[in-house]
Amino acid sequence: MAAVEAASTEIGSLVVHGSDRRELEKALIASGWSAHADASKIDAPMVVFLMWLLLLYLAMVYGPMAAFMVELFPARIRYTSLSLPFHLGSGWFGGMLPFVVSAMAVARGDVYFGLWYPIVIAVVSFAVGALFVPETYRRDITQ
Question: Which stretches of the chain are DSSP H helices?
Fold first, then answer.
């Protein structure tokens, strides 16, 4: 059985073999990385504004989406029909996003490569929605 080679990482001008935490920290500090954020350089009002802006975008998406999804299913199966896809989408696709994006970036060695995961999910969702979601205009949703 062949011996497994330890992965090596190049940080700045230093090469770190394996995953020794102390060696990695030394290499990061030597290349100018700071272990802690400088609290005096954080623009707190801007951080709060950006978080508020993200929440506004979230509300702009989820409000109409809930109203739209209610119209898709008959009343007798509406609860399950809404709950199952929402929780699968949020839990599996959204919940796995940080792990999958990080794994893709590490596997490829490109920090931006992981962005293909949310792009592909969005494109597939759009295609499925455009092809298979029925029009609900003038349909009785109380049935």
Answer: 21-30, 44-72, 78-87, 97-108, 116-132
Total tally of structural domains belonging to the chain: 1
Cα–Cα distance for residue pair 74/143, rounded to 1 Å: 6
Decide if 25 is inside a domain.
Answer: yes
Q: Which residues on adjacent β-strands are paired with residue 9?
A: 16
Residue 3: inside a domain: yes
Q: Torsion angle, CA of 15/17/23/24, rounded to 10 degrees?
A: 70
Domain span including residue 20? 1-36
Question: Is 121 within the bounds of a domain?
Answer: no
pLDDT single digits (tens) 56-112: 998 998 888 878 878 888 888 888 888 888 888 888 888 899 999 999 988 888 889
Residue 11 is assigned to a structural domain of this protein = yes
pTM above 0.85, yes or no: no
- The total number of residues shown for the chain amounts to 143
Quote the tokens at residue 139: 């349909």
Amino acid in the structure at residue 27: A
